[in-house]
Amino acid sequence: MASQNVDELYDTVEEFAAILVAAELHASGAWEITFTEDIRASFKRYGPRTQLSVAQQTQLERIAKY
Q: How many domains does the chain contain in total?
């Protein structure tokens, strides 16, 4: 499946932002930290138009423990 915008994947942008914050707090190890930093950078640049693949969404929510 193709990537989708954050505003298509979540009910509100605030919901995504909360998941991202939780992921940043729970990230451990270099890969998870870099991954969440990269998602944060994309979100700062593109806002609700940030694209996430299914794999990225799954990993982000796993790290956030959602």
A: 1
Distance of CA 47 to the CA centre of its chain: 11
For 1, 10, 29, 54, the CA distances from 21, given in Å and listed in that order, are: 26, 15, 16, 19
Tell me which residue range forms the domain holding 50. Answer: 4-64
pTM exceeds 0.85? yes
What tens digit of pLDDT does each residue of 30-49 get? 999 999 999 999 999 999 99
Could you please report the per-residue DSSP string of the chain?
---EEHHHHSS-HHHHHHHHHHHHHH--HHHHHHHHHHHHHHHHHHGGG-EE-HHHHHHHHHHHT-
